[in-house]
Amino acid sequence: MNTSPEINISDVDEARLVDVSIIIPIYNEEGILSASIADLTAKLAKDPRWDYSYEIILAENGSTDRTIEVATELMEHHPELKLMHNPEPDYGLALRRGILAATGEYVVCDEIDLCDTDFYMRALDKMANENYDLVVGSKALKGSSDQRPLYRRLATRVLNSMLTIFLGFKGTDTHGLKAFKRERLLKVIDRCVVNKDLFASEFVIRAERMNFRMTEIPLTVVEKRQPSINLFRRVPNVLKNMGRLVWVIRVRHRS
């Protein structure tokens, strides 16, 4: 049973169905939120490949700056924006609840400092024309370009190695951009047992173990600003949830 705190959802109209739901977790992003949303919506408006109705769900979680105020102001000018609020900082829970609140046929999970619309186009094409259920943007795949600082690249490699060794993951990346068919993948969400930093990884690994049709495509990643949460402070929780996943998936064999 999920005992995580409830999230207050504002302006999520369940009756309004769209083609694509874009989920973006946000935490202390007052400095880049306005510019990022302006850039994202402008790129979608200008791209001739983008012929989809859409919503952008900002999954705020525990911000202590003006992120909520800025997001609320943005909603006055961007009707496609919706805001969710969780009082505690929890990336995984924010992402999970954003997915559950989505109304789109397709869901895209993005980051506020990436907003990679080219990934959207390529992933949607893979799902619509090649019948994939899940498309993962990989920073480690041939053809990708990971331009983040060295310590962050090393951290990603260590995490991916742990997922391979301890959980039998066969891909190259789990924690980043991804897109999927909402109705098909909701059953994966139901099986996930962790939140915080490893929810995104568990989601991909369970989809793989449940034999959904999935593929990876290369990404170009450039870090535009310092992460809002210190990487080293996340390590204890990552290790705790890694142990929990090993127990649930490998020991108890709960796929």
From TrEMBL:
CDD domains: DPM_DPG-synthase_like. It comes from the Bacteria. InterPro entries: Glyco_trans_2-like (IPR001173), Nucleotide-diphossugar_trans (IPR029044). Pfam families: Glycos_transf_2. Keywords: Transferase. GO terms for molecular function: transferase activity. GO terms for biological process: protein N-linked glycosylation. Residues 21-170 form the Glycosyltransferase 2-like domain. PANTHER family: DOLICHYL-PHOSPHATE BETA-GLUCOSYLTRANSFERASE, GLYCOSYL TRANSFERASE. This is Glycosyltransferase family 2 protein. It comes from Bradymonas sediminis.
